[in-house]
Write a structure and sequence with these properties.
Blueprint (H helix, E strand, L loop, with lengths): L1 E9 L2 E4 L9 E2 L10 H11 L4 E6 H4 L6 H10 L4 E5 L5 H4 L4 E5 L6 H10 L4 E7 L2 E2 L15 E6 L11 H10 L4 E5 L5 H9 L4 E4 L1 H4 L5 H8 L2
Parallel strand pairs: 1-4, 1-11, 4-5, 5-6, 6-7, 7-9, 9-10, 10-11
Antiparallel strand pairs: 1-2, 2-3, 7-8
Length: 229
């Protein structure tokens, strides 16, 4: 099972996400890294474990209030061996696709047809099915039209992000039952090794992690066991 660390960027800094309340996100300051500078945060994550993939959310771009693309590109130049998955609200896609996998967040699209076009035209896109509580943030019906989806799909539980309340395994299981061929990645609420074991047992292809890494609930030993199992 693939474990993917997460960096959320806002105003050129890494911020600590909590329950999807983006207006209240504060600059990162955790035991793992006493800094909110993107390069220092990524360096701390790589000191914890040599991850080969990193998920980045450019919250300014997603919210339509700016862009952190230059900083993200600088991370690519510093760590070219790392595969970047980037959700930047579908802005500057031409440039982004030159160095990262674009993440299509359903909160940023307006129709199933737009998703179909993006999946067909973008190189190796990742879909993020965005949920706020039980409310799907995206075009009506898109979360049921599996034929529109690419093979890699994130089930993003925004209200669980940063809360350590546990992943939404029920929804993930529903999607796996709907289409077993999908590679589904859980995001939001993952607490510890037990959550990882449960997600692996139901067939998750991977997990996006932030809070559990910074707080030390998932350490090098746990990561190594799951990545190399």
């Amino acid at each position: 099972m693939k474990l993917i660390p997460v960096i959320d960027m806002m105003h050129n800094r890494v911020v600590v996400a909590n329950s999807g309340k983006r207006h209240a996100y504060a600059a990162a300051d955790t035991p793992l890294c006493r800094s909110s500078r993107p390069q220092e945060v990524l360096s701390a994550l790589l000191d914890l474990y040599p991850f080969d993939t990193l998920y980045i959310a450019d919250l300014d771009a997603i919210c339509g209030s700016g862009s952190n693309l230059e900083l993200i590109y600088a991370l690519h130049l510093k760590y070219p061996e790392i595969n970047l998955w980037v959700d930047n609200g579908l802005t500057d896609l031409g440039r982004l696709c030159g160095f990262a996998r674009p993440v299509i967040g359903t909160e940023s699209i307006v129709s199933c047809e737009q998703l179909a076009h993006l999946v067909a035209s973008l190189p190796s896109p990742v879909l993020s099915l965005d949920y706020h509580d039980d409310h799907f943030k995206g075009p009506a019906g898109l979360d049921r039209h599996v034929d529109y989806w690419p093979e890699d799909v994130i089930v993003m539980s925004l209200t669980r992000v940063g809360t350590s309340t546990g992943p939404d395994t029920t929804r993930l299981q529903q999607f796996l039952n709907l289409q077993p061929r999908l590679r589904l990645y859980a995001a939001g609420g993952i607490r510890d090794q037990q959550d990882l074991q449960q997600l692996r047992s139901i067939g998750a292809a991977g997990v996006l992690l932030s809070t559990a890494l910074h707080q030390g609930a998932i350490d090098h030993g746990v990561i190594d066991r799951f990545i190399n199992a």
